[in-house]
Amino acid sequence: MSKQSLLWQITPKKGGSPSYLFGTMHVRDLRAFEWLELAKDHLQQCKLFATEFDFLESDPAALAAALTLPEGLDLHQLLRPSAWKNLDRIAKKKLNSSAEVFRKEHPMSVSSTLSMMHLLAETPYSLDETLWHFARSLPIPTTGVESFSEQIETIHRIPLETHVKGLTWLLKNEARHKRRMQKMLRWYSSGDLKSLYQSAKKDAKGMREVLLYRRNKIMAERFVELASSTSLFCAVGAGHLAGGKGMLRLIKKAGFKITPIIYGTA
Fold it and tell me: CA–CA distance from 160 to each of 89, 98, 175, 201, 225 (Å)?
């Protein structure tokens, strides 16, 4: 798995139609879209398309509830005064607003918003959503290797204080985090799964079992189940592919042959 690629052909050892596993970024920055056409070419060869969860399952009300702080809590209470001051400064600089707009938001939601501020929003949909819409247009049936409810459950499995600690770090290290986001885009463009995995593992410090390893196991098991009976194209966050507990290693252990598809040669 040393070769650099975001797209992997997954073939049953006993033969049969190949499936594909593609590492995405959940962003709308065009710098992450260089692999899109290659992914589309292979998606069209498949009979089923899967994202982390099928966007048809999305429940905006449930998501909004999960990303809102429990009754009686607000972010101003949870953050130290210096962190709240930094949030207010960033909100005024980037949003022409104030930290008050985040008062009732879950720290995970605020962290995501701050991260996206360092990237461009150049497309109507994120990369994985773009592929999902493409599959629906063919039309190819869609599914998920997780469920929407499982993703909501993941948010609740992580202690609130852990989320607060992560947000506090981002607020204190805004410039450093911006540089990391730019590095991630460069790693992604070059198909550097190892660096993306190391970055995801570092970002998930204290939450790796919940955010990475447990989810990798669930998604790999469902990938194997689906790919055993049909040709599957599966698009999940690139940080889930590499590593000893990554999806590629788990799928290989389940008896599949994995082969990188090198950009520019397929």
Answer: 23, 23, 25, 19, 34
